[in-house]
Design brief:
- The chain is an alpha/beta fold.
- It has one domain: TIM Barrel, CATH 3.20.20.
- Helix content is 41%, strand content 18%.
- The chain is built from nine helices and eight strands.
- Helix 4 crosses helix 5.
- The longest helix has 21 residues.
- The radius of gyration is 17 Å and the shape is globular.
Amino acid sequence: MSLIKKNILNIIDELEQNNSQKDSKVRLVAVSKGQGQEKILEALKSGHNIFGENYLQEAIDKQKSLTNYKIEWHFIGPIQSNKCKLIAENFSWVHSVDRIKVANKLNDSLQEKTLLNVCMQVNISNEDSKSGLNINEIDSLAKHINNLDKLTLRGLMAIPTNTSNDEILRNEYNQLKNIYEDLRKKYASIDTLSMGMSNDYLLAIENGANLVRIGSKIFGKRK
């Protein structure tokens, strides 16, 4: 068994054992940014086909060489408005929508019957260096996305404070979970709380995450 396959199976087992949402599974997005095609192929051989990318051109190059495989591609990086067309055309999920302008451009880039799953990125740690909505901006963007004909509003995404302090992380997770639960009451399409990465995914799922984005824990260090 390859190391990548072993890592994926171990993580999936941990997700099942620690899932606080007993009525649904936790989805795993294998973050393949900075990783070579051969490592993605190893993950595919293990049966995993959901991958997340941060950098558009790097992702498109990989997609061109992996066209024979059925892959669900998630864009999880900051979005430049001039890249929206390529993102919309090459991904089935976008986790990092944080502006009306971006939502409009993604929507306008799609063909008539194509739908794109989107999550709104929230700056839950209130750090100036991070992308994402302020909490008081969430409702207006959610309403706007819900009215666009080619976007499906699926939920929220956040990158918490980079800290080993579990109390700080737990507070941020719980705040986001409460916002998520309120939104679920308003929008039937919302079902995804995307938080948790290689260093904090167990704590995240214990506090409500149902999608985690894990890279180095699967693939090792990036190039």
